[in-house]
Specification:
Layout: E1 2-3, E2 24-25, E3 50-51, H1 63-73, H2 85-95, E4 102-105, H3 108-119, E5 125-130, H4 135-143, E6 146-151, H5 160-166, E7 171-177, H6 189-198, E8 204-208, H7 223-229, E9 233-238, E10 251-254, H8 257-265, H9 274-285, H10 287-310, E11 322-325, H11 331-340, E12 343-344, E13 346-348, E14 352-356, H12 360-377
Parallel strand pairs: 1-2, 3-12, 5-6, 5-7, 7-8, 8-9
Antiparallel strand pairs: 4-10, 9-10, 11-14, 13-14
The chain binds 4'-deoxy-4'-aminopyridoxal-5'-phosphate.
Length: about 375
């Protein structure tokens, strides 16, 4: 399929040539960024390879969750419950919120898209910090709305006063990514309260809390506590990260009923599969056991950060299950060296690298790469 207005000379308005026949995507999609998913490691015969490029959980699902998946697989000839009633009830009970405040989707990325499509269209603006989760600009452009990206501060945190100042009459939705992907930095309760007080009541603030379970900083607010008193706050959570179900695609929204209903309206029917629904219910039931694994990832994160610092890299403390090294034009080189060592990480050309806290062996290899890198180049990653 071609994209009208893209490189096709026949599509240019100054061209006398007729349009080539055939289906065409909307002109609004021209130049849309592609989602740059974390690469998979290539298979090697000389060493075990590790994937540290997508912020996944290194632990496989718990045995009780695998059992639920196997049982659900036997019902795969049937459509799922279109309302995911049992999962919605389990999430509502888990957070002590009414069921009509919950909407589920095929990962929280789907809910980002549903919310943007529900609230913003041509002529509207969606605001977010940048750099942040790379799906935001894509969802906004697909909806035909315009992105307003407010640069992060020098210490990689959201510039909340700058974001408040960028809100205008066209702003319909604001994403606050807490902790922020890819920098791992957080927004604190006091600055967020000040920001929320400045946001007009008809602008929805979506707290994207994909990594919230890894947060240990007591000043980070719980979005689900905040949304209760603020009708224009919504929260996104996922089973992909702390719960370790990235491959099954299930996430959720907690919001006031009108917002949750709008997100349901724009979603594809039967999105959450029977398998994903049962696995998510079983994971909520095993919540405490999974919290133990999250604690192990957090302990490993602290060990990893200490190792990188001891190697001579300067990095901010992260609150997520990944670290960010602002290596600027050395990002690609560092990623290549990690790849060589059998660990696939996520480079952002010219900006930095994001490395998931993975298996201890993978983290040790990255620290060894960092040591060699600093010896060869001098300290890097000053922030
Ligand atoms: N929000 C943020 C900040 C993320 O980093 C991600 C995953 N990379 C998501 C949402 C989406 O996760 P999922 O669709 O797997 O729930």
């Amino acid at each position: 399929m071609t994209v009208a207005g893209a490189d096709d000379p026949a599509a240019r308005s100054d061209s006398a040539a007729p349009l080539a026949p055939g289906p065409r995507a909307r002109a609004a999609l021209a130049g849309i960024p592609t989602y740059n998913a974390g690469q998979r490691p290539r298979v090697r015969t000389d060493l075990t390879v590790y994937k540290a490029s997508s912020n996944e959980n290194p632990y496989p699902p718990l045995p009780s969750v695998v059992d639920a998946i196997a049982r659900a697989a036997a019902q795969a000839n049937r459509y799922p419950d279109p309302a995911s009633t049992r999962l919605v009830a389990a999430i509502a009970a888990h957070h002590d919120v009414p069921a009509d405040h919950v909407a589920v989707g095929t990962g929280s990325v789907a809910l980002c898209s549903h919310l943007v499509s529900a609230l913003a269209g041509p002529g509207d603006e969606v605001l977010y910090a940048w750099r942040s989760f790379e799906a935001y600009p894509i969802c906004v452009q697909v909806a035909g709305a315009a992105s307003v990206a407010v640069p992060l501060l020098a210490d990689e945190r959201h510039d909340l006063p700058g974001m408040a100042a960028a809100i205008g009459p066209r702003t319909r939705l604001v994403f606050v990514c807490n902790p922020n992907n890819p920098t791992g930095q957080v927004v604190h309760a006091a600055e967020l309260a000040e920001f929320l007080d400045a946001v007009p009541p008809d602008v929805l603030v979506v707290m994207d809390e994909a990594y919230v379970e890894f947060v240990r900083d007591p000043q980070v607010p719980d979005g689900i506590r905040l949304y209760r008193d603020r009708p224009n706050v919504a929260v996104l959570r996922t089973f992909s990260k702390a719960y370790g179900l990235a491959g099954l695609r299930v996430g959720y929204l907690v919001a006031h009923p009108e917002v949750a209903a709008a997100a349901r309206l724009t979603s594809t029917p039967f999105g959450v599969s029977v398998i994903a629904e049962e696995a998510a219910i079983a994971s909520l039931a095993a919540h405490e056991e999974l919290a133990g694994r999250v604690a192990s990832v957090v302990a490993e994160r602290d060990r990893f950060v200490a190792g990188l610092r001891a190697a001579g890299l300067h990095l901010e403390a992260t609150q997520a299950n990944f670290v960010w090294l602002r290596l600027a034009d050395r990002a690609a080189e560092f990623a290549r060296a990690c790849e060589e060592a059998g660990v696939t990480i996520r480079p952002y050309a010219g900006e930095g690298v994001r490395i998931t806290v993975a298996e201890p062996e993978a983290n040790d290899r990255v620290v060894a790469v960092a040591r060699q890198f600093v010896t060869a180049n001098g300290p890097a990653g000053e922030q």
